[in-house]
Write a structure and sequence with these properties.
Distance between the termini: 11 Å
Strand content: 5-15%
Strand order of the largest sheet: 3-4-2-1-5-6
Radius of gyration: 16 Å
Low-confidence stretches: none
CATH superfamily: Urocanase like domains
Protein name: HUTU hydratase
GO biological process, one term: L-histidine catabolic process
Largest sheet: 6 strands, parallel
CATH topology: Rossmann fold
Shape: globular
Helix content: 40-55%
Number of strands: 6
Organism: Oceanodroma tethys
Structural class: alpha/beta
GO molecular function: urocanate hydratase activity
Number of helices: 10
Number of domains: 1
CATH architecture: 3-Layer(aba) Sandwich
Mean pLDDT: 94
Length: 216
């Protein structure tokens, strides 16, 4: 319902075939995102750093395909988008790499490959394993978290700034992003990322919340 309502409200579209939804998180509650994309009829690309979560969702049939290769992900996204095929593709890697690759595609081809975007990393708990920084691999990041939590925190905040910068670039070209109630925008703001709404007070963000703005 969230994906469908986002399409209706922000794309003015009842039919989401050929539309692309990019997000992250396939553990816990976020595991339903892959299923939602296919039910809504769009192309869903969901990044996840933990391979165990990806394999679980694939085994359940909630996730149709898995890849750790961004070139392959972009090729599959383009094909499914062009042919209006419903697809849930799990990218085994950091979502910041995925967002930055989409910016690279925009810069090199002029093509905006994503219509809808969100995030379901556990940003309510970003410094204890809820969000993994793009600068490190999953196992390396876990080790740093246990040995040097202060450094881990710094890398998370740097990663959040890159995360938001890529989203902002795509949103400026017409991609619609929303907060999924996971404290992503709040923690990004605390990290110094550019998420504040222009001309508004400090408590307002430039992107909507799915609770107030999409689901009502």
């Amino acid at each position: 319902l969230t994906v469908l309502n986002a399409g209706r409200r922000y794309l003015k579209a009842e039919d989401l075939s050929g539309k692309v939804f990019v997000t992250s998180g396939l553990g816990g509650m976020s595991g339903a995102q892959a299923k939602a994309a296919v039910i809504a009829g769009c192309v869903g690309v969901i990044a996840e750093v933990d391979e165990a979560a990806l394999l679980k969702r694939h085994k359940q049939g909630w996730l149709m395909e898995i890849s750790n290769n961004l070139d392959h992900c972009i090729a599959r996204l383009r094909d499914a988008r062009k042919n209006k095929i419903a697809l849930s593709l799990g990218y085994h890697g950091n979502v910041v790499d995925l967002w930055e690759r989409l910016v690279c595609e925009l810069d090199t081809t002029g093509e905006l490959l994503v219509d809808l975007g969100s995030d379901q990393t556990s940003c309510h708990n970003p410094f204890s394993g809820g969000y993994y920084p793009v600068q490190l691999g999953f196992e390396e990041a876990k080790q740093l978290l246990s040995t040097n939590p202060g450094k881990f925190r710094t890398l998370v905040q740097e990663s959040l700034k890159r995360h938001v910068a890529a989203i902002n670039r795509l949103a400026d070209k017409g991609m619609f992003f929303w907060d999924y109630g996971n404290a992503f925008l709040l923690e990004a703001q605390r990290a110094g990322a550019d998420v504040e709404k222009r001309g508004a007070n400090k408590t307002e963000f430039r992107y909507p919340s799915y609770v107030q703005h999409i689901m009502g």
